[in-house]
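protien #1 (seq + structre)
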Amino acid sequence: MNSRWHGSILVLLSAVCYGFLPIFARLAYAGGAEVQELLFVRFVISFIIIGAFLIFVRRMHLPSRRQLVILIGLGAVGYFLQSSFYFLSLLYVPVAVTALVLYTYPAFVTTASFALGFERASLRVVASLALALIGLALVANPALDLDGRGVIFAFAAAITYTCFILISSRELKDVKGELSTFYIMGGSAVSFGIYGSATGGLGIGWGTDVWLWVVMISVVSTCLALTLFFRGLRIIGPSRTSILSTMELITSVVVAAIVFRELLTFMQLVGGGMILTAAILAALGEGRT
């Protein structure tokens, strides 16, 4: 197997692992888990596992003071908000809707890069944004009797993730992916711990079934997904990685249809196709900014 195939398979496996994240979350909710306590445990487990991995492979070290502050801030604020919005959205709308609305973020990243002067204006930028917005309108059509709170939360997750990507891509270029993840997970865990303690939202009296899904979120859809992603990224580069990562969206939509019988309407499928195309167009420009 040549290196390109090897890297591509790693990224595809990572995307599938990520794609199961909303499925596991909905199953945990069904068992009685609350959003904040679920996310607190997720990030604590992930922080411990990734830290142990870094120590084992002898890659654990402190970045510069400035980088450390940025990493912890991204976790404590950026990832805290993004994951909260995303998981809250899953309480109100189908998994497929949340996944599709979130996946408008590549178009927003591309457009913001142009607005901030990181990238030159092009037909691709305009087409990506237009397709994403039209697709978003079709997926979130109020005539479909969707709960508006879920759509708003998913859209907020897309916007906060856009900000997260823009900041991390410009400020943390020379920090290894796994190391960045370790400190970001730590910052997120601290924020969720503080918030949960202040609001009384950490009453973790779960049954075995809930613990199973939360561990699956932490191990499969966080640690394993991130490890595979960064390993594949190093082999095949950002553009091809971004395109193959759209398998995450496809996985979420298909598995949700099988497990939860959450079927999209024809117009939502059209909108989803537009969002997927917008994500691929955005990815085609990576590496040239």
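ok now protien #2
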Amino acid sequence: METFMDTRETETTLPYIELAGAEGAIEAQGDLERLDELTERLATGEFLMETDKTIPCKCKDERLCAHMIEGPNAAGGILSLLVADDLTTRRFAAKDGTTVGALQKMIAHLQEQNLPVGVHGDEHHVNLDDPLSGCGANDKLAAIYAMIARKIDTILEYVQIIRGDADRDGAYATATRAQARTRFSSGKEVFNTVKNTEDAQTEILEGEHTGSVAVINLRSGTTLDREAIEAEFGPEYRAFCDDFWSFPAAAAAISERDNETEIQQKTLAMDIYNIATSLVLCGPGMRVVIVR
């Protein structure tokens, strides 16, 4: 089992933990004093803004574009809901076993409830003839499932820190299902499925990754204002965001009505997927700030 870095001690105690167990390339970077200032201000909730949407429809990715989706953030946008179902009850499973087939059914279900649907690509991939979308949570879904299977104990530690408790048996069952899936639609197929759906939203994010802090947001009805961060710190200092407060409502939207057991299972699966995504995409020096 991985062990977590203690909250960093400086002249003042900075409110973050480092992402122990992470295996990706995106790390905290830049001038230390400026990075410390961003970390401290993010931890206060200064850069949160209100949202009237209740379920994730925008990815955690820190980059910006000309036409931003507004709403709660989670890994891959609607992908967080798709994975939560795929790793639990599979209510939306397609006959052909593909993730795109399940996604099509889920989009229809959400739109029947007038709930938002969104994903993103990026300028480096969406117009190319390749299988990638530019969203790591989407393009690296197979690696994220493998991470869930390999490091479920590490992921559980994070769930406990964030939520205060975690269903260990439920987490292990989720890991077993992650290990069992071997067929994944390409990131481009997933992106195009949403892009070609009427009333769904897509972003084409611009530039390279400069995320130095990952925000876990537990304040209901809020999300990260990336444009405000950009205006204050410039493009060199950006932040990822997971709006964990929105996961129970998302789980309820894709569960049997009032089935609390199913809602809890899918909320946990969403927690696990979002943490695993960070472990795949980010390095162990990534700062994690929890805003309560």
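The two ends are 26 Å apart (CA to CA).
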